[in-house]
Design a protein that fits this description.
The complex is a heterodimer of chains A (551) and B (95). In chain A, 37% of the residues lie in helices and 18% in strands. Chain A is of the alpha+beta class and 551 residues long. In chain A, a hairpin with a 5-residue loop joins strand 8 and strand 9. Chain B has one domain. Chain B has two helices and four strands; from the N terminus they run βββαβα. Chain B is globular, with a radius of gyration of 16 Å. The chains are: A alpha+beta (551), B alpha+beta (95).
C-alpha cells in the first residue's frame, strides 16, 4: 500500500495546526458559525442529531493494521468506543466534541490519516474495489490510479468550491465491486484489442432524489491522459454546473440537461487545450506511485490443506463462511476474507474498538497487515493463506464476526438513519434488525441466495436503496416513520435504478412485505436464477401485485 | 398544554440542550421549558443571545402537545441517543 513521505506528513501537520487555530477562533467568537461551517466540513466534521460527527478518509478503503488500531483508540478515547463504516469506504465517529477535534486530527496525522475532503463541495475520497491488487479478475491494479487521483484531487485549488460534491470510483475487475455506474465519474480499467490498457469513462451517475446511472463519455481513454481528461470534465462542470439550486447542482443534472453528446463536445473542447500538457502525470511520478503497489512476494501455500479438509463437513457455520465470505485470490493457495459486519442484533456497519483491534491482529497474523473497507460496509483481509482460514474463522468467532452473510439478505447496506442523522426521515438501523430477525434462519438466507437489500433513512440515499434488488426508503408520513419499497436496482456493470412499487408501509409491516416479495421469487425462480435476474425476467409488476394483494 | 420548546447543540461539544424556564440550558429534556405565546419571545431573545455569545449553535424550535414530543426525530433526540445498541467495546482487547 502507499506509504506517506515527508511531503505528505508535513502537509498533514500544517493542515491539523490550521484547523486547531480555526476551532480556537470559532470558540472565541472570532469566527461565526456561518464562517466556520465550510471550514469544519472541509475537515469532515458535521453537526448531527446528537453531537458532532467526524468522517475520516480511508483512501480507496485501504488501511494498515496500525491505522485500524489507531482508529480503535480514537473511538475509545474520543468517542463511545465504536465507529461506523460507510459506503464510501470511510469511517464515521458519532460522538465527537468540537474542542477535541484538533487533538483527533493530530492523532490521525500521526497515523498518516486525515478527514480532508470527506465532506463539502469538493472531490470526495476516491473509492475502489476492495479486492484490488488481490484478485485475478482485474485488468491491472486500480489502486495505483486511485492514489494518482487522490494526490491530484487533494486540495486541488481549482476544484475546492465546486457546485456540489463530486465522487469518483475506479474499478478494474470483471465484476464491478465499486458501483462505478453511480458516481459522478466512474472509471473502469479495460484492455483494448491491441493489448493497451486504458479507461472506459462514465459520467453523470448518482443517487439522491434524482437517481441516474452514469453514461459512457468515452469507451477508451489512454492511461497517460487520465489527469488532463479528469481536469477537462471538472472544468466544464465547475463553470456550467448549477449553483442556484442545491438539488440541481450535481454533475448528473448538467449531463442530462446538456445531453451526453453536447457534454462530451464541451469536455473535448476543454481537453484539446490541456491534453499531453504539463497537467499530465509525469512518467517517473507514475512509476514512483506504482512501486508502492508492487505485489508482495507471498510465501508458497498449499492448494489444499489437511486442516481445511478436516474441518469441512463438521461445522455448518464454517462451511457457510467458506462459501460466502472466502473470496478468490490471484494465488490459488491464498484467499481474501470478507468479514461481515452484519449480524442479528448488530447495527449494520458498526464495529467496536475491540473488534477493530481484533481484526487488525488477524490481519497481522494471517494476512499481510492490510485491511480493506468495502462498499457494502464490510471489511476484507486480503492475502490469507487458505490453510489458515480456520484460524481466522475461529479468531473472528471470538468477537462474533464469523457470520457468513456476504451477498445474502442479511448483508444489508444501511445508512445511520434517524438514530443519528440530522437529515433522516426515518430510522434505518432498527428496521434492518427487524428484517434480519424475519430471516433469522441461516438455511433460509442461503436458499434465497445472492440478493442486495439496502435501506436509506431519507431521499439522500446514503443507504443506496436505489441500487438494490430490494430498496427501502424511509419517508415521513404525518410525523410517523414509513417505508417505500423499490425493486430492480443494481450497482454492478449493469447498473440500474430500482422502481418504487407503491404506497409505503409502517415499520412493523416492512418485514412481511419483504417476505412476500422474496416468497414470490422462491416460488417462481428458475434453477440458479438470482433474485435480480428473476425480477428482470418476471417484471416488477408481478411482484407489485403479489405485495399489495398480500398487504 | 401545547407550547414551544427551544433546543440547540452546545457549541464546544455538540451536546443537545434545551432552554429551561430560567433561560439556562439543560441536557435533560424533562427539564426543558415549554413556552407559550406570552413567554416565547423572551425565551427566543435569550437563546439568540447565547448563540451570539458562542455557547450554543443550531437553535430551532419544536411544537409539543404538552405530553410527548410529537415526532420520532424529537423523541430520539430527547432520548439522547440511538434506539439500537452499538456493539460494546470489550476493552482491553482480546489478544
Amino acid at each position: 500500500m502507499y506509504k506517506y513521505d515527508t511531503i505528505d506528513r508535513d502537509f498533514l501537520d500544517r493542515r491539523s495546526a490550521q484547523f486547531r487555530d480555526q476551532v480556537a477562533r470559532r470558540l472565541s467568537g472570532e469566527l461565526s458559525e456561518d464562517e466556520f461551517k465550510p471550514l469544519r466540513l472541509q475537515n469532515g466534521l458535521y453537526l448531527q442529531l446528537h453531537a458532532y460527527m467526524l468522517r475520516v478518509a480511508i483512501p480507496y478503503g485501504v488501511l494498515s493494521s496500525r491505522q485500524l488500531r489507531g482508529l480503535a483508540s480514537i473511538a475509545r478515547d474520543f468517542d463511545r468506543g465504536f465507529g461506523h463504516f460507510t459506503t464510501r469506504q470511510n469511517i464515521q465517529f458519532n460522538w465527537i466534541k468540537l474542542v477535541e477535534t484538533p487533538d483527533i486530527l493530530d492523532r490521525l496525522a500521526e497515523l498518516d490519516m486525515h478527514a480532508i475532503q470527506t465532506s463539502g463541495n469538493c472531490i470526495r475520497n476516491v473509492t475502489s474495489d476492495p479486492l484490488a491488487g488481490a484478485t485475478d479478475d482485474e485488468v491491472e491494479n486500480p489502486m495505483v490510479w486511485c492514489e494518482v487521483i487522490r494526490q491530484w484531487s487533494t486540495l486541488h485549488p481549482e476544484f475546492a468550491f465546486l457546485p456540489r460534491k463530486f465522487k469518483i470510483a475506479v474499478s478494474a475487475g470483471a465484476e464491478d465491486r465499486a458501483a462505478t455506474g453511480f458516481h459522478d465519474i466512474g472509471l473502469r480499467l479495460v484492455k483494448a484489442r491491441s493489448g493497451e490498457v486504458g479507461f472506459r469513462v462514465l459520467v453523470g451517475g448518482g443517487q439522491g432524489r434524482t437517481p441516474r446511472v452514469a453514461q459512457q463519455l468515452t469507451p477508451f481513454l489512454p492511461k497517460k491522459n487520465l489527469l488532463s481528461y479528469l481536469e477537462a470534465i471538472l472544468r466544464v462542470y465547475n463553470v456550467a454546473g448549477r449553483r442556484d439550486n442545491i438539488y440541481k447542482a450535481r454533475l448528473k443534472i448538467l449531463v442530462e440537461a446538456m445531453g451526453i453528446e453536447a457534454f462530451s463536445d464541451a469536455v473535448n473542447m476543454e481537453w484539446v487545450g490541456i491534453r499531453d500538457s504539463v497537467v499530465e502525470l509525469p512518467l517517473e511520478e507514475f512509476e514512483r506511485i506504482q512501486r508502492h503497489f508492487a505485489r508482495d512476494t507471498l510465501p508458497p501455500a498449499d492448494l489444499t490443506s489437511e486442516i481445511l479438509e478436516a474441518y469441512c463437513g463438521k461445522g455448518h457455520a464454517f462451511e457457510r463462511w467458506m462459501r460466502h465470505n472466502v473470496l478468490p485470490h490471484y494465488d490459488p493457495g491464498y484467499a481474501n476474507v470478507c468479514i461481515s459486519i452484519k449480524a442479528l442484533g448488530r447495527p449494520p456497519g458498526d464495529a467496536s474498538a475491540s473488534e477493530m483491534e481484533r481484526i487488525a491482529d488477524l490481519a497481522d497474523r494471517y494476512g499481510m497487515g492490510e485491511i480493506r473497507f468495502t462498499y457494502s460496509q464490510n471489511v476484507v483481509i486480503p492475502h490469507v493463506r487458505r490453510d489458515q482460514l480456520i484460524r481466522v474463522f475461529e479468531g473472528l468467532g471470538d468477537i462474533g464476526l464469523n457470520g457468513g452473510e456476504n451477498g445474502l439478505i442479511g448483508d444489508m447496506i444501511v445508512c445511520p438513519g434517524l438514530d443519528y442523522c440530522n437529515l433522516a426521515n426515518a430510522r434505518s438501523l432498527p428496521l434492518a434488525d427487524r428484517i434480519f430477525q424475519h430471516f433469522a434462519d441461516a438455511g433460509l438466507r442461503d436458499e434465497i441466495g445472492k440478493i442486495r437489500l439496502n435501506i436509506s433513512g431519507c431521499i439522500n440515499a446514503c443507504g443506496h436503496h436505489h441500487a438494490a434488488d430490494i430498496g427501502i426508503l424511509g419517508v415521513n408520513k404525518k410525523g410517523v416513520e414509513n417505508y417505500q419499497i423499490s425493486l430492480g436496482g443494481r450497482a454492478g456493470e449493469d447498473a440500474a435504478v430500482g422502481r418504487i412499487l407503491g404506497p409505503s408501509f409502517d415499520e412493523h409491516r416492512v418485514p412481511d412485505a419483504v417476505a412476500a416479495i422474496v416468497g414470490l421469487y422462491l416460488h417462481r425462480r428458475k434453477p440458479d436464477e438470482t433474485f435480480g435476474d428473476a425480477v428482470v425476467r418476471l417484471g416488477v409488476d408481478v411482484f407489485k401485485r403479489e405485495l399489495y394483494a398480500a398487504a | 398544554m401545547p407550547g414551544i420548546l427551544i433546543t440547540a447543540n452546545r457549541l464546544e461539544d455538540g451536546v443537545v440542550v434545551w432552554l429551561a424556564t430560567d433561560f439556562t440550558w439543560t441536557e435533560t429534556r424533562s427539564r426543558a421549558g415549554i413556552f407559550d405565546a406570552d413567554t416565547v419571545q423572551t425565551a427566543r431573545h435569550s437563546a439568540a443571545g447565547d448563540q451570539t455569545n458562542n455557547f450554543v449553535t443550531a437553535i430551532y424550535e419544536v411544537m409539543v402537545d404538552g405530553k410527548a414530543d410529537v415526532s420520532a426525530r424529537e423523541a430520539i433526540r430527547a432520548n439522547r441517543g440511538p434506539t439500537i445498541q452499538a456493539p460494546p467495546d470489550r476493552h482491553p482487547s482480546i489478544r
